[in-house]
From TrEMBL:
GO cellular component: cytoplasm; nucleus
Keyword check for Transmembrane: no
Identification of the protein by name: type I protein arginine methyltransferase
Keywords, ordered alphabetically: Chromatin regulator, Cytoplasm, Methyltransferase, Nucleus, S-adenosyl-L-methionine, Transcription, Transcription regulation, Transferase
Biased composition (Basic and acidic residues): 1-14
BP GO annotations: methylation
Length: 469
């Protein structure tokens, strides 16, 4: 093949990644190749909590923010949010996707347009969706949006572990700043990062055991200890992703709200989370547990909702994806004296995320579509809330544990105070540096300095024992 042909082939495969020579840079190739896999797309679609929450948010706000509107779907993937938008009556949806999954979406669109199949599956999509193969930051009105300078509504599933991993939220904000019309709608409207101290000896021991290998002084006659310090640092700087039960938590969470409608890109790239927990029982703190909540608040309700989002002790809702009237957006329940009692017998042990079967998804889709379309026909707007907390049904995001290298013993009623600085890194993720201490003391024995790399996630399916009561 000629050099130009080779280059064109690499572009099609997503292998040519130099800046200016393809839809993304070389360092992002593996990321976008991962999202080109239908198997990964299926995992996300089969997360019924995620998919139904987005469907509910779109359909329940159809009259005001989707019907006869121009919509941009940022990071469209397989196009499910674009398709929901058409179901809600969108005039035109621009499905922006940098990975080669856009080719699969184009095939679906072509089929609906009768360009491939005379049967025309999903014929109702005909002429409604335009797949755009580009990074959001490279999209222009002239080249990609048929000359449209603004859109009425932005939608995106731009989320990763702890909300911000993968850094797709920055692309969401880029679309907001360049294309969303004044007063337009953005879904999701906000996200909440939640952190709480935890007691989880099983997982801490699991990680420590891996690090201890490098403490070996006679491995085939070799002293491995020169590797030891780096091994321990590496092990405990790696967040542990997996589901866990609520009974390992030692305090209500501290919550950090990110308002996608107003936050600047710069403030998303570097932010600090203050920490102040009151410990509810004597225990050993092995680290911090993390998860996120998501809010879909239409602009007309944003002022009242933002006041409620500022609550620092909301800890989840009994339902995962609930449709709430404006003033009920923060109807979240604090964990009571017995988490098992307060959450309807939910076990303190973690249950793994299990993809929904196609039958269940069909039933859920039919039921939620009927309910939300009925609401839409009545002309009502509503807000939708979704949680990935350990109090709620597991999702494919699961939760995350940030372990201390040295656990911290605490007594009931003491406070753990400190802060975590979150800064973007070059690996489509964040580096977290924190310091916590008992009652804000400067005593080195009661203080823990922490460093975590959100891009260096490891996974654990260990079911943590509940904290002692």
């Amino acid at each position: 093949m000629a050099k130009d042909d080779v280059r064109d082939a690499k572009r099609q495969l997503g292998e040519e990644g130099e800046e200016g020579e393809g839809p993304y840079e070389r360092k992002d190739v593996s990321y976008f190749q991962y999202y080109s896999l239908l198997s990964h797309q299926a995992q996300m679609l089969q997360d019924a909590v995620r998919t139904s929450a987005y469907q509910r948010a779109i359909m329940s706000n159809a009259p005001e923010w989707f019907r006869e509107k121009v919509v941009i779907d940022v990071g469209a993937g397989n196009g499910i949010l674009s398709i929901f938008s058409v179901q809600a009556g969108a005039k035109k949806v621009y499905a922006v996707e940098a990975s080669n999954m856009v080719q699969r979406l184009q095939h679906l669109v072509d089929a609906a347009n009768k360009e491939v199949s005379c049967d025309a599956p999903n014929e109702w999509l005909s002429g409604k969706i335009k797949p755009v193969h580009a990074k959001m930051e490279d999209v222009t009105s002239k080249d990609h949006l048929d000359g449209n300078q603004h859109c009425d509504t932005l939608i995106s599933e731009c989320l990763g572990v702890l909300l911000v991993h993968e850094r797709m939220c920055e692309s969401f904000l880029d679309a907001r700043d360049r294309f969303l019309k004044p007063g337009g709608a953005i879904f999701p409207s906000a996200g909440t990062i939640c952190l709480a101290p935890m007691e989880d000896k099983l997982v801490w021991d699991e990680v420590a055991t891996k690090a201890r290998f490098w403490d070996n002084r006679n491995f085939y006659g070799i002293d491995m200890t020169p590797f030891s310090e780096a091994a321990w640092d590496e092990a405990f700087s790696s967040p542990v992703v997996g589901c866990f039960g609520p009974l390992i938590l030692l305090s209500p969470s501290n919550d950090y709200d990110i308002d996608f409608a107003t936050i600047s890109r710069e403030n998303l790239m570097r932010f600090e989370m203050p920490l102040d927990f009151e410990i509810n029982q004597t225990a050993v703190v092995h680290g911090l547990a993390g998860w996120f909540d998501l809010h879909f608040v239409p602009p007309a309700s944003s002022s009242s909702a933002s006041r409620k989002l500022s609550s620092s002790d909301a800890n989840g809702d009994e339902t995962m994806a609930t449709e709430l009237d404006g003033d009920d957006i923060a109807g979240l329940k604090k964990p009571g004296p017995s988490a098992e009692e307060a959450y309807g017998g939910l076990s303190g042990h973690a249950s793994a995320f299990e993809p929904s079967t196609s039958t269940n998804v069909d039933q859920l889709t039919a039921a939620s579509a009927l309910e939300t379309l009925t609401s839409a026909a009545a002309g009502s707007q509503s807000t939708t809330y979704m949680s990935t907390s350990p109090y709620s049904t597991p999702t494919h995001w699961q939760q995350v544990r940030f372990l201390f290298r040295e656990p911290l013993a605490v007594n009931k009623g003491q406070r753990i105070q400190g802060k975590i600085l979150c800064e973007v890194n070059e690996f489509r993720s964040y580096t977290l540096n924190g310091v916590v201490s008992i009652n804000g003391t400067d005593d080195a024995l009661l203080t823990r300095k922490c460093h975590w790399r959100l891009d260096r996630q490891v996974y654990s399916w260990t079911s943590a024992s509940p904290a002692s009561q």
